[in-house]
């Protein structure tokens, strides 16, 4: 349900003046989340169109939310609605408006066929009012240590979950989850991620999505028979109770190719940049 197949690079989420939200990939092979299980979870939607999920995000504190830069390409703050405190994208929860949008200054919008990577794909949203915390709404601590080896993790999101999704599936066959899903995953080393990604790229010479793993800004996971898919972009990867990654790419085609990894922006490489904005709550 979580495969971010980077079609979002072709059609930018909220990238036009239209009120329509472009859907970025979600989790395949996941499980239904329980109320309050992932209280940091945010659904980024189009203002005025409840259920129009485009990307996920995570609550950092009372005013700031972390997501992927490619989810925040439109600078018109009035187009965004942030839904928190619910495991259903189309009902319950609280809605917050956006005051400020910040994309990492090194993030570059690349469009296929020239697309090669999703480096520095991280961004922030500031809410117009303070987020009210309760048992269903809470911030997630940021992982500040660099993870270098194998480590169990978990990811949650509202992405597509159809087991029939393949590289040749038309968009009409993607089944978007209305219920928050989660999946266990295993963080792998930078070297293993490089090998797996290079192998996948070599097997698909005409495939437009050919990520290049950044030496410091990416972190990767694998998990047989499950993976990120459309709608999962911007969601958090959690390890030891901390957010360690932001979903940016699911090159495994929504869990259909076990050898290929899911790719995230490595949060520990950007905590200084994040702190510069989020330490000021007002």
List descriptors.
Thrombin, subunit H; 6-stranded antiparallel beta barrel; mainly beta; 2 helices; 282 residues; 7-stranded antiparallel beta sheet
If you had to describe this structure to a student in words, what would you say it looks like?
It holds the Pfam family Trypsin. GO terms for molecular function: serine-type endopeptidase activity. Keywords: Disulfide bond, Glycoprotein, Signal. The protein is mainly beta and 282 residues long. It has a domain at 151-268: Beta Barrel (Thrombin, subunit H). It is built from 2 helices and 14 strands, in the order ββββββββββαββββα. It has a 7-stranded antiparallel beta sheet with strand order 6-5-2-3-4-8-7, with no helix packed on it. A 6-stranded antiparallel β-barrel has the order 9-10-11-14-13-12. Mean pLDDT is 82; it is low at 1-26.
> What distance lies between the first and last C-alpha atoms, to the nearest angstrom?
36 Å
Mean pLDDT: 82
The biggest beta sheet reads:
7 strands, antiparallel
Give the class-level CATH name of the domain at 151-268: Mainly Beta
InterPro entries: Peptidase_S1_PA (IPR009003), Peptidase_S1_PA_chymotrypsin (IPR043504), Peptidase_S1A (IPR001314), Ser/Thr_Proteases_Immune/Dev (IPR051487), Trypsin_dom (IPR001254), TRYPSIN_HIS (IPR018114)
Domain Peptidase S1: 27-279
Signal peptide: 1-19
Keywords: Disulfide bond, Glycoprotein, Signal
């Amino acid at each position: 349900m979580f495969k971010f197949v980077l079609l979002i690079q072709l059609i930018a989420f909220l990238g036009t003046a239209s009120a329509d939200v472009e859907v970025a990939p979600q989790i395949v092979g996941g499980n239904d989340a329980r109320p309050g299980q992932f209280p940091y979870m945010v659904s980024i939607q189009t203002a005025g169109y409840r259920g129009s999920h485009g990307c996920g995000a995570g609550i950092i504190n009372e005013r700031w939310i972390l997501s992927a830069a490619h989810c925040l390409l439109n600078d018109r703050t009035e187009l965004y609605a942030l839904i928190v405190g619910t495991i259903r994208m189309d009902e319950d929860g609280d809605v917050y408006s956006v005051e400020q949008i910040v994309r990492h200054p090194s993030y570059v919008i690349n469009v296929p066929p020239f697309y090669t990577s999703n480096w520095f794909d991280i961004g922030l949203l500031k809410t117009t009012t303070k987020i009210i915390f309760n048992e269903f709404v809470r911030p997630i601590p940021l992982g500040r240590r660099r993870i270098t080896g194998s480590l169990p993790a978990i990811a949650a999101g509202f992405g597509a979950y159809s087991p029939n999704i393949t590289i040749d599936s038309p968009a009409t066959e993607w089944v978007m989850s209305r219920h928050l899903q989660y999946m266990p995953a295993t963080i792998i080393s930078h070297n293993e991620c490089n090998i797996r990604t290079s192998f996948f790229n070599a097997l698909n010479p005409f495939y437009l999505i050919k990520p290049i793993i950044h030496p410091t800004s990416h972190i990767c996971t694998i998990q047989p028979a499950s993976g990120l898919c459309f709608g999962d972009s911007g969601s958090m990867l959690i390890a030891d109770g901390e957010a360690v990654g932001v979903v940016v790419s699911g090159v495994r085609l929504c869990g259909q190719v076990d050898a290929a990894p899911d790719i995230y922006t490595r949060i520990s490489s950007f905590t200084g940049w994040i702190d510069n904005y989020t330490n000021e709550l007002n």
